[in-house]
Specification:
The complex is a heterodimer of chains A (about 375) and B (about 140). Chain A has 12 helices and 11 strands. With about 375 residues, chain A is of the alpha/beta class. In chain A, helix 1 packs across helix 2, helix 3 crosses helix 12 and helix 6 packs across helix 9. Chain A starts with a strand and ends with a strand. The longest helix of chain B is centred in the first third of the chain and has 5 residues. The chains are: A alpha/beta (about 375), B mainly beta (about 140). Bound molecules: zinc ion (ZN). The site of zinc ion has 8 residues of chain B, from loops.
Chain lengths: ~375, ~140
C-alpha cells in the first residue's frame, strides 16, 4: 500500500450552532481545511470524498457535501459507524488513497446534535445505536449504559469518583486555549464532585455536552504530497474493532474489546506501539471511558489507569498527554465530526501549531468508541513517514 | 426514603416479536422464560433462532430460576422517562442459571444506596396490558 499523508485540516468551532445547519457547517470546515493547505488546494484535485455523519438533519448527506462544496463530479460516500464514524471515514479514505485508486481524497465529518431538544436527544439519537426493544423499557438510556460499565470498573479497580472528576478538571483546563472548544472554562475538583448526579457514578461534569460542528481533512498519496506541503502528517495506521451490541454476554464490563482490537490493528499497521505515542485524543464521552481507554489502548496495565490521571501523566506537560484539545468533554462531541476533529487537532500537534501544544510530539493516536460500546476506530498519525 | 416499590404511572413498553414474546409474557405464569440451546444446554439472551455458541437451531424458551446477582448498576437521577420519577436503579442482573446471561432490569424494593454489586435478587413481574415486565428485588423482600 502507498503511504498516505494528511496535507490539510480544518474545522468549525464546536458549539450550539442554532443558526447553522449541516449545509453551512460542512462548507465552512472544508474551506478552513483548504485555507490551511500550505501550498494551496485546487478543489478540482479532489478525486473522492468520504463523509462521516451519524444522523442527518438537513437531508441526503453525500448530496449535501457535493452540493455545498462544489464537488459534483466526484464520488462521495457517507460513512456511518456510530460514534466511531469519524475515524472510520479516515480509515476508508486511507485505503482508497493507499490502494492507488485515488491520489487526493477529502474526509469530512459533521453532526448537529442540538437539532433535537435537550430532553429528546437521547431518545432520538440513542435509538440509532441501542436496542429499543430490550433496553429502553427499563431505562437503559445511553448515559446509563456507560454508567453500568464504569460502575463495575470502579467496583473492581482502585479508581474512585475523584479520579473521574480529575479527568473532567484536566480536559476542561486543556480546552481553555482552544478557540474551537465548546466549554472553555476551568472547573475545580470540588465543583465536579458536587455537581448534580446524572446517572451514578456520573455527575454533570462527567458528561460530554451536546454539540454541533464539522471537521475536514485532505488525504493525499506520497506520490503527490510535495504539491501540497513540505510538512505532511502521515497516516501510519488505521483500525476498526467490534463487539456485541448488547451487554448480555459481555464477560468483562471493565474493558471495551473493540478498542483493544482497533488499536492493535492500528499499531500493527503503523509499526508503532502504545509506548511510542506522544499525544492522544481519546473518546471521553464520559470521564470514566477515558480511564478505561488508557488500559484498552495499552497506555497502562489493567486497573492502573487512575495512576496516570493522579500523577499528571496524561495532562499537557506530562509524558503522555491525552485530549490536549479538551476532548469530547470540553471541546464538544458532534459524533460524525468528533473523530475527524481529533485528527485535525493531532495534525496541528504534529506540526507544532496546536493551541495547547505538546512539546516535541512525533506520534499521535485518535480513538473513538460507540454503538454504544460495540465499535471502535483508531488512527495512528506521525510526523515521520516510517 | 421508603424502600418499598411503587408502580410508576407509566412505562415504556416493549413491542413483543415472535422471538421475544415468551420473555415478555412468561410472567403471566410467573415464569422467567429465557432462550436455551438444547444442543449445548447453554442459556442465551436476547432470544434468537440460532445458538450463537454452537450454531444449533434446536433452541427455545425455558423457565429460568429467576434468581440472579447484580453485576453492575447505576442510579438514574434524571427524569429520562415520562412518569417514571427518579431515582431508580438500572442494573445488569447475571442469572444464577448462567452468569454469562445478563438482563437489563430495575432493582426495586430496596433503597438505591443499599444496592451493591453481588446483591442476590429474585425476579417478579409487573403487568402492563399484554406484557409482563421482569423486575428484580432483593431475596427476602423489601429492605
Ligand atoms: Zn448451543
Amino acid at each position: 500500500m502507498r503511504r498516505v499523508a494528511i496535507a490539510g485540516a480544518g474545522m468549525t468551532p464546536f458549539a450550539e450552532h442554532f443558526g447553522l445547519g449541516i449545509k453551512e457547517l460542512v462548507p465552512m470546515a472544508v474551506s478552513e481545511m483548504a485555507a490551511h493547505v500550505d501550498k494551496g488546494l485546487d478543489r478540482a484535485d479532489i478525486e473522492a470524498a468520504w463523509f462521516g455523519e451519524l444522523t442527518t438533519t438537513d437531508g441526503f448527506p453525500s448530496g449535501i457535501l457535493a452540493d455545498t462544496c462544489g464537488l459534483l463530479d466526484i464520488p462521495v460516500t457517507r460513512v456511518e459507524n456510530a460514534c466511531a464514524t469519524g475515524n472510520d471515514a479516515v480509515r476508508n479514505a486511507t485505503y482508497a488513497v493507499g490502494s492507488g485508486v485515488v491520489d487526493v481524497a477529502l474526509v469530512v465529518g459533521a453532526d448537529k446534535v442540538r437539532e433535537s431538544s435537550a430532553r429528546g436527544t437521547f431518545w432520538e439519537w440513542a435509538g440509532l445505536t441501542r436496542d429499543m426493544a430490550w433496553d429502553y423499557p427499563l431505562g437503559l438510556v445511553a448515559p446509563a449504559n456507560f454508567a453500568l460499565h464504569v460502575a463495575r470498573y470502579l467496583h473492581e479497580s482502585p479508581a474512585t469518583r475523584e479520579h473521574l472528576a480529575m479527568v473532567a478538571v484536566k480536559n476542561h483546563k486543556h480546552a481553555v486555549p482552544n478557540t474551537k472548544a465548546q466549554l472553555r472554562y476551568e472547573i475545580t475538583l470540588q465543583q465536579a464532585l458536587d455537581a448534580p448526579i446524572v446517572v451514578a457514578p456520573f455527575g454533570l461534569y462527567d458528561c460530554t455536552p451536546q454539540s454541533d460542528g464539522a471537521a475536514a481533512l485532505l488525504l493525499v498519496a506520497e506520490d503527490v504530497v510535495d504539491r501540497y506541503t513540505d510538512r505532511p502528517v502521515w497516516v501510519r495506521g488505521v483500525g476498526l474493532g467490534l463487539d456485541r451490541v448488547m451487554h448480555q454476554h459481555k464477560k468483562d464490563m471493565t474493558t471495551f474489546p473493540p478498542t483493544v482490537k482497533a488499536s492493535r490493528a492500528a499499531y500493527s499497521m503503523a509499526g508503532l506501539g502504545p509506548e511510542d505515542i506522544d499525544v492522544a485524543e481519546v473518546h471521553d464521552c464520559f470521564t470514566g471511558v477515558e480511564l478505561i481507554s488508557y488500559e484498552d489502548l495499552g497506555f497502562v496495565e489493567k486497573f492502573e489507569a487512575y495512576t496516570l490521571i493522579e500523577n499528571g501523566t496524561t495532562a499537557v506537560g506530562g509524558s503522555k498527554p491525552v485530549n490536549p484539545s479538551g476532548g469530547l468533554k470540553a471541546k464538544g462531541h458532534p459524533p460524525g465530526a468528533t473523530g475527524v476533529a481529533q485528527c485535525v487537532e493531532l495534525f496541528e500537534q504534529l506540526r507544532g501549531q496546536a493551541a495547547n501544544q505538546v512539546d516535541g510530539a512525533r506520534n499521535a493516536l485518535a480513538h473513538n468508541i460507540g454503538g454504544p460500546t460495540a465499535v471502535s476506530a483508531v488512527t495512528v498519525l506521525s510526523s515521520e513517514k516510517g | 426514603m421508603t424502600a418499598a416499590y411503587t408502580r410508576p404511572g407509566t412505562r415504556l413498553l416493549p413491542d413483543p416479536t415472535p422471538e421475544s414474546e415468551p420473555f415478555w409474557t412468561g410472567g403471566a405464569n410467573g415464569e422467567l422464560l429465557v432462550h436455551r440451546c438444547r444442543a449445548c444446554t447453554r442459556w442465551f439472551h436476547p432470544p434468537a433462532p440460532v445458538c450463537f455458541r454452537c450454531r444449533s437451531l434446536d433452541v427455545g424458551p425455558e423457565p429460568a430460576s429467576g434468581r440472579g446477582r447484580v453485576a453492575a448498576f447505576t442510579i438514574n437521577r434524571q427524569p429520562w422517562i415520562p412518569a417514571y420519577p427518579p431515582p431508580y436503579v438500572v442494573a445488569m442482573i447475571e442469572l444464577a442459571d448462567e452468569p454469562d446471561v445478563r438482563l437489563v432490569s430495575n432493582v426495586v424494593d430496596v433503597a438505591p444506596e443499599d444496592v451493591h454489586v453481588g446483591l442476590t435478587v429474585d425476579v417478579f413481574f409487573e403487568r402492563w396490558d399484554d406484557v409482563w415486565i421482569p423486575l428484580f428485588r432483593p431475596v427476602g423482600g423489601v429492605r
